[in-house]
C-alpha cells in the first residue's frame, strides 16, 4: 500500500506513511505476542493498534466531526488525539484484560461516521467500499466475540480456528477501512482531485488489495 498509494501520499500528506508503518509494527508485535503469550507482547500489540487508530483519526477525521470547541482546526484536533492516546497508553497498563474490549469499542464511533457519510453520498464506488469494510469488520468481530465467549463450545467440537480467522479478516478490513477514509477525506480536503478505487494485482480479479488513484479535475 505504501508503494501503490505513493501518488496519493504526495498529494495529501506524507504523514500517512506513519499509519502504514504502524500497520506493519502491529503485525510484528502480534506475532511476538502469539509466540510468547506474554503480558509484554499483549501490551505491545494493543498499544500499537491504539496508535494506529490515533494516527488515522489525526489524518482522516473530517473536520465537521471535530469537537465544537476546536472549531475545524486540525492541528488542535491532532494535539487532542495525541494527548488522549498518551493517557490511554498509560491506562492500558492498569487493567490489561479490558484493553481489547476498549479498542473494539472505538469501532462504534468509526461506524457512526461511516454511516453519516454513507447517507451524504451517491457515489456508488464509495458506497461499495464502505459496505465491504463494514461487512468484513462484522465478520471479523463475530469471530473474535465467538472465540472469547464460546471458547469451551468450540473446544468440544475441536474447532480451534476462530481467533486465526479474526486475524485474517481484520488484516483485510484495515486496508479497506483506510481506503474508505481516504475517499471520505478527499471530499473535504482535496478539492480539484478525484480519487478512483483500484485493486492490486488487477481490478478484474474477484479479490484484491484496494488502493486509490488520484486524478486531477481539469476544466477544458
State the share of residues found in helices, binned by percent.
55-70%
Please count the helical segments: 8
From the spread of the alpha carbons, the general shape counts as: globular
- Helices and strands: which structural class? mainly alpha
Alpha-carbon distance between the termini? 32 Å
Low-confidence stretches: none
Number of domains: 1
Strand content: 5-15%
Oligomer: single chain
* Sheet having the most strands: 2 strands, antiparallel
Task: Identify the strand order in the major beta sheet.
Answer: 1-2
Mean of all residue-level pLDDT scores: 92
Number of E-state strands: 2
Rounded to an integer, what's the Rg over CA atoms? 18 Å
Q: Please trace the helix and strand order, writing H or E for each element.
A: HHHHHHHHEE
Main location: membrane
Subcellular location: Membrane
GO molecular function, one term: N-acylsphingosine amidohydrolase activity
EC number: 3.5.1.-
Amino acid at each position: 500500500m505504501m508503494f501503490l498509494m505513493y501518488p496519493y501520499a504526495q498529494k495529501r500528506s506524507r504523514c500517512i506513511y506513519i499509519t502504514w508503518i504502524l500497520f506493519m509494527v502491529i503485525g510484528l508485535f502480534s506475532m511476538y505476542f502469539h509466540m510468547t503469550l506474554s503480558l509484554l507482547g499483549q501490551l505491545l500489540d494493543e498499544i500499537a493498534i491504539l496508535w494506529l487508530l490515533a494516527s488515522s483519526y489525526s489524518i482522516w477525521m473530517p473536520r465537521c466531526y471535530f469537537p465544537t470547541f476546536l472549531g475545524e482546526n486540525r492541528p488542535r484536533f491532532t494535539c487532542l488525539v495525541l494527548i488522549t492516546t498518551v493517557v490511554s497508553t498509560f491506562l492500558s497498563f492498569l487493567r490489561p484484560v479490558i484493553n481489547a474490549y476498549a479498542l473494539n469499542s472505538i469501532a462504534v464511533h468509526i461506524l457512526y461516521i461511516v454511516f453519516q457519510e454513507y447517507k451524504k453520498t451517491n457515489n456508488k464506488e464509495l458506497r461499495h467500499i464502505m459496505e465491504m469494510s463494514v461487512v468484513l469488520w462484522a465478520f471479523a468481530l463475530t469471530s473474535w466475540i465467538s472465540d472469547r465467549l464460546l471458547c469451551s463450545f468450540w473446544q468440544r467440537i475441536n474447532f480451534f480456528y476462530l481467533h486465526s480467522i479474526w486475524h485474517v479478516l481484520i488484516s483485510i478490513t484495515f486496508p479497506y477501512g483506510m481506503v474508505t477514509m481516504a475517499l471520505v477525506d478527499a471530499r473535504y480536503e482535496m478539492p480539484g482531485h478525484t480519487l478512483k478505487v483500484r485493486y492490486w494485482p488487477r481490478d478484474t480479479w474477484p479479490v484484491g488489495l484496494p488502493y486509490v488513484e488520484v486524478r486531477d479535475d481539469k476544466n477544458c
